[in-house]
């Protein structure tokens, strides 16, 4: 099957689910204009570098999948109703300050396999009460950013050199965490402070 190089024109404005993954699309600006009913947009495995204002006006969008593209930054003008944002396997180096506050319903954020550094994460950028799952695995981070106390799942494979967890933050920060993945880091069991048990009270699974 021949792969698409652009979003097909003249798609019905009433469309609710649009799946364009595994194509050769590189530009999407203006492609979704007027699709106010669109709730699920899948653009993974394409060649998109910049989205421009492509998502402006998509007031019903709750899920955006842009894994495996060529993005250098987090898309702008994300819809306020967005709940799931998947941006793994891109070239993102930084997260804009306040980007989560523009998406007050966002629950799942996956930024694994990018080029994020500690410098590229503004203070409290992930400290949003709605956030349930955060994946920052396989980046260039050396410390765990401040997160909401409501966070339940945190994935941080191949990032940390030392265990910089409960000792650097408020003990209550990770009190709702149920799953913690820290495997493939340079962490030994002896590096985990004794007080970890107090700030990880609800965790059912820890992989170091």
From TrEMBL:
Keywords: Extracellular matrix, Glycoprotein, Leucine-rich repeat, Proteoglycan, Repeat, Secreted. The keyword Secreted applies. Transmembrane segments: none annotated. It comes from Sphaeramia orbicularis (orbiculate cardinalfish). Belongs to the small leucine-rich proteoglycan (SLRP) family. SLRP class II subfamily. GO terms for cellular component: extracellular space. It is found in: Secreted, Extracellular space, Extracellular matrix. InterPro entries: Leu-rich_rpt (IPR001611), Leu-rich_rpt_typical-subtyp (IPR003591), LRR_dom_sf (IPR032675), SLRP (IPR050333). Affects the rate of fibrils formation. May have a primary role in collagen fibrillogenesis. Binds to type I and type II collagen. It comes from the Eukaryota. This is Fibromodulin.
């Amino acid at each position: 099957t021949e792969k698409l190089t652009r979003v097909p024109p003249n798609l019905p404005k009433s469309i609710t689910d649009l799946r364009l993954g595994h194509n050769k699309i590189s530009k999407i600006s203006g492609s979704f204009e007027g699709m106010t009913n669109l709730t699920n947009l899948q653009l993974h495995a394409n060649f998109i570098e910049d989205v421009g204002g492509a998502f402006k006006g998509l007031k019903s969008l709750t899920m955006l999948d842009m894994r495996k593209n060529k993005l250098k930054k987090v898309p702008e003008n994300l819809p306020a109703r967005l709940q799931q944002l998947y941006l793994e396997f891109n070239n993102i180096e930084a997260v804009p300050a306040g980007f989560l506050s523009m998406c007050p319903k966002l629950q799942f954020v996956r930024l694994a396999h990018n080029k994020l550094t500690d410098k590229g994460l503004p203070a409290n950028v992930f400290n949003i009460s709605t956030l349930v799952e955060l994946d920052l695995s396989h980046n260039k981070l050396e410390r765990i950013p401040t997160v909401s106390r409501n966070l339940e799942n945190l994935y941080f494979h191949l990032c940390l050199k030392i265990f910089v967890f409960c000792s650097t933050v408020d003990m209550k920060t990770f009190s709702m965490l149920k799953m913690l993945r820290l495997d493939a880091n340079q962490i030994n069991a002896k590096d985990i402070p004794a007080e970890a048990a107090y700030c990880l009270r609800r965790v059912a699974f820890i992989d170091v």
